[in-house]
């Protein structure tokens, strides 16, 4: 586990050779000592041997990673699942052509989506994760000693199996005895949850096209609110301020109607997500007020989890508060819709 | 100027059509109604008609933008200069294959590199910009009513000319009567500056390979320190925490030796820069102490500049403070080297 702590932002960067600089950089066409990696048909490639993330969700741009080796390709009932070894971001999990995590930067997403809600309330005990089949959010929830019960509802068993096989430092979250895995539809699962069951719900979903679409809609938020105790919190993946302000605006409007406590937007950097950032909606139900911007349950002050999971690579209490500070163009839109 | 305020993060995102979702997204191979844009030879392309940013500074990854039209290509004494119309980021300026600015996200970089230093000191009067030939930093410096004199030393006249022709909302910074443009080497310019001339120096450089290399070295920082008044400030482009921690570490060590006041690192999101973030070194010389994290000269409280330059799109006092909060992996390295 100690090695895992080395990966964030610390991979060696190749120093440029003199002949490579000043604009004459040639495209690296080949991998594996001369043979371009053969990519599966469902995987977009714009350079032979490179994976490119192309989607109508971010038209006109694409991020590409050099592929060393395809480790897995499968098609579940819900989506295409691919794992490849990249040359500079470690192993990469791709669902329906979209990067879900890389070993190099997964810490930023997993730590922020988990500790932003859990460090904002005193002594979280019961936590539900919707999606999150890779196990990374579970790993982060498990750091909290106060937590007694962690339910996870993931729709796609293949994601869980693939993560356990290829991302042991992420899937390690499944090993905690407090975790119960439910394979199934998160929307249906939530409807069956008795009112007021959870202190926190974390919605670790993919983009709102494909299997995750319903997780961005108002009836789903209403189910989440019902499943939370008074003053409970939800944190849901909420896209990019640079690319998806119209989606974010809709989410904020829906959340403002559903959640009677506070409604907030936070964001963080994740280099392999489109535009390099991802945001989160953080809301609380009516009850004891939650001031998300001021963490009252600092996980970085408690060192007991480090022995099992290694040190936090990304999250700390300062970056928690900072995550709620928005660029002016986003602040104007979001704060006007989030105000009571 | 009012239209300029519309561009940040507000370009319409095409809603996905049903048949485009679930992994079956086809690569858009063509632009301009069927004909792929012809790219100049010095411009890397991984999809026909798309520009790809490939560099040994970020091996194994590449960001690509769809090209609508090449607007300019030239070769100056220092670098290749290209301007193209992208399909979703507006016009794009590329130097030696590396994106310098796009109309859609330039606000984040220009506003942060300028207002982080200028809002940290009372009444900045004399400001020097090294590099910054596009004029965007000048535009932002000009918002400060207290400023009496703005010198800029840019090595490459072609950058200035191209910006004036293709990026009028950026090059507008050159129109302020307080601005004096010097075409020449920033290192030599600084050596000739009388001691203690400036309140602030902003180093808006490209990456430390190519013409900007010396701007990351210790003798240059020493010249900057000499050119500043006691308690004066410098802000210099300082790469990405995700990609270049070893470069950042070197810069911090150099700055700690040279600047006898405070030494700080801040960062912001810029989607079209590698890894989606860019950082800044902010240092002060011996004299009245400067607490960069707490802006004492808030430009967002003064509305007088809005009439000329439009509202700030990105910067505000909250995001100023937040920019100094670092992810744990970067905080550990930087704070240990920056400490006195």
From TrEMBL, chains A, B:
E.C. numbers: 2.5.1.16
Xref: PROSITE patterns: PABS_1, PABS_2
Gene3D superfamilies xref list: Spermidine synthase, tetramerisation domain, Vaccinia Virus protein VP39
Coiled-coil annotated spans: none
Active site: residue positions: 204
GO biological process assignments: spermidine biosynthetic process
A Pfam match: Spermine_synth
Family statement drawn from the similarity comment of this UniProt entry: Belongs to the spermidine/spermine synthase family.
UniProt protein name: spermidine synthase
Organism listed in the record: Perilla frutescens var. hirtella
